[in-house]
User: Fold this.
Amino acid sequence: MTTPQAYIDRQLQRFQAELFDFLRIPSVSARSEHDADTRRAADWLAGRLRAVGLQAEIVETARHPVVLAQWRGAGRDAPTVLVYGHYDVQPPDPLELWTSPPFEPTVRDGRVFARGAADDKGQVYLHVAALEAYLANGGRLPVNIVLVAEGEEEIGSPNLVPFVERYRERLACNCVVISDTGMFAPDLPTIVRALRGLAYLEIQVEGPRGDLHSGTYGGAVVNPATALARIIAAMHDENWHIAVPGFYGDVRDWDENERAVIRALPFTESEFRAQVGSSALDGEAGYSTLERLWTRPTCEVNGLLSGYTGEGAKTVLPARAMAKVSFRLVPDQDPARVGQLVREYVNRIAPKGVRVTITELHGGRPWRAAAEGPYLQAAARALERTFGRPPVYTGEGGSIPIVGEFERILGAPVVLLGFALPGANMHAPDEWFALESFEKGMRTIAYLYEELAG
Ligand code: BES
Ligand code: ZN
Assistant:
């Protein structure tokens, strides 16, 4: 019998080739023209899971299906691990900024470049590889596995809570393991213990019946673009504190020990600034950059649309303006409550002469891990075996909406064990995943199963 680690040594090339096949499928969940591709990705993944020896099925939802697979050969006394990931990806545009096409995986400098390489196909597939490393040649896993891969994470997981509720008994588990986050630095294995939530709104501002001549009418008719700019500007005060009344009411502060853990991380402000390419960093007064990213809520404009934006000048007073605005949330903020507070505030401050409509696009709850537990410790040991050093504990500014719901509905703790490296360009052109991370990820997950059973 070969060990799982020896199996990984020998099959690495094939695992990579299979990942590239997965990456070639443009499973862009947000775009209906890719619905068939998204389904193809689900079918492909289910097919691979069956080949590996799991029982796998496609569960329909109102939109993109869930891949549900299981292997229960470890017996009733062994722990059950739920592995979650997503097979959908963000839209690849702007296409012209990709060095190689987003759905033609290309290796440069030991990295595979493709949409979804890091977020999340590479990280889903390393789990499949780790499972195969145990199950090949009639082998066994030391734990039972339930695997859930959804196709709607990048659009806010609108159909996953009903799925988890409906399949609650099938999904019963001792812990949930997710690889959909990153490492704090190359060679620094990382366990993420906090995620922000999200409340995503669209704000429509309507003024006159149609576009107007800005000279004939400007000055007497309220301009919707200016009105929207005022509304957006009123979201923050001069200290980048969010000005929506009641917004901070449910925000739980991190205690001094937790802040000390953040301060101890090797982080250089100037490197971070250089990496994003901004001339200066700024944010809510009284907090460090990492605290702003991980422990504090935000309000961001994600998109703005109004008036004339083509070549040259056009003197127009636009009839309407639109903004996409999202709030990242921290425990214990609730997306619906925040949406309501913002709605009341905007209605109160909206200039007269325009009609403002707010639509809630999606939301997700923030999450923080409970203090130490045996599953977190097992993950830490698995990381140490692969990387030769214990993990650092971090937070993450992004969101994985289902994480808090898994804990709430299934009553099992979630461990976030991700392998993307900083600068992986998730959601941006030239997304990449290091082939070394792919390998180390599968080794870590293979060790994790031993550690969980032991
Ligand atoms: N994998 C990301 C979450 C993430 C982002 C982890 C950055 C680590 C670093 C996930 O797929 C994602 O992008 N989530 C969305 C959720 C939203 C669409 C509800 C996000 O955070 O914007
Ligand atoms: Zn993701």
Residues 4-195+366-453 form a domain with the Aminopeptidase fold (CATH 3.40.630.10). The first helix runs from residue 4 to 23. The chain has two domains: 4-195+366-453, 197-251+297-364. The CA atoms of residues 244 and 352 lie 19 Å apart.
